[in-house]
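COURSE: Structural Biology Practicum
ASSIGNMENT: Worksheet 4, Part C
STUDENT ID: 0417
INSTRUCTIONS: Below are two proteins. For each, the amino acid sequence is given first, followed by its structure token string. Answer the questions at the end about the second protein only.

PROTEIN I
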Amino acid sequence: MIKKFLAVIVITSLSISCAKKITVPLTAEVNVVNEDAHKTIELRSVGFGNNIDEATYDSEKKAFEILFFRGIPNTHIENPLIGANENEILSKHPSYFKSFFESRYKSFIMSIYQSSPTQKNNGVTSVVNDIKINTMALKRDLETNNIIRKFGF
């Protein structure tokens, strides 16, 4: 009985460790498409994942991460919205970012559409989405939740 149990565990472990794992590239492929002075910004963001849903989520998340922690040159968000050390802020406000990226971020997206066909390469799906974000409401939300001060960084 014990030998059968151990055999099952070994076979299960081997099959799990040999399963094909898809690695998603880490990129920050986000560009400005259009902006409305201090109210909205439309970004073109590339996302990667195991399927189209994961790739779309990745593109949306990257757009917000760039706004939060990097900024976008030659726009009204040239400086990042949060502007501090990314790891420090994420660890200081984990519940905010967890709830934000689980569902709340969609309330700041005014429109999203796929700007080029989905591509699949070595099992990795990539999508290019144009995402229009209400930056005025996003800043207000960050201020309300004490992530940034009311008058800036």
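PROTEIN II
(use this one for the questions)
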Amino acid sequence: MKLYDTKQAPNARRVRIFLAEKGLNVALMPIDLMKQEHKSQAFGQISPDHKVPVLVLNDGSAISESVAICRYFEELHPEPALFGRGALGKAMVEMWQRRLELELFFPIAETVRNSHPAFAVLETPQLADHADKMRARVMGALARFDAQMADRPFAAGDAFSIADITGLCALDFMRIARIRIPPEMVHLTRWHQSLSARPSANA
């Protein structure tokens, strides 16, 4: 199998971190977004919506969407469990994964795509007003997640999960959006530092 990957997008990084946590090695096929390699006709045969990452299996089946790829590997290699254990545990991971994705991950990505000059090739036209709106939304989400992280080591409770991977990739991508965790948000800072110290964070 092959994983079409890019170093330029946090979605692809989510999959790499997930694989690192599982101790899995998959052949990586690099795609340069800034050179528009994902827009090529050849890549369109693999990914009709021209999105990265994409996992291509040995039988030719293609799985896109980062969380869907992670779920595939979770089914094949259930340990360590990164989507939770039991009915409640799995529901909690799903809940926090979606919250972090919708309230933090996506707004940060929208801020970057609509404000950073280097991403103008990916977002035409860039909308400054939209970026400002998303940046304000991110700041509100940071405050909420800081309060919610006060009583737990990881996003969904006591165990590291896909929700933490999403959170780490979102918080790290804030640097490109020129957003920082305010110093008074000590719980969010502690969580980010803890996740950043894991070996998989270098994936």
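ANSWER KEY EXCERPT:
Q1: DSSP finds seven helices and four strands in the chain.
Q2: The two ends are 19 Å apart (CA to CA).
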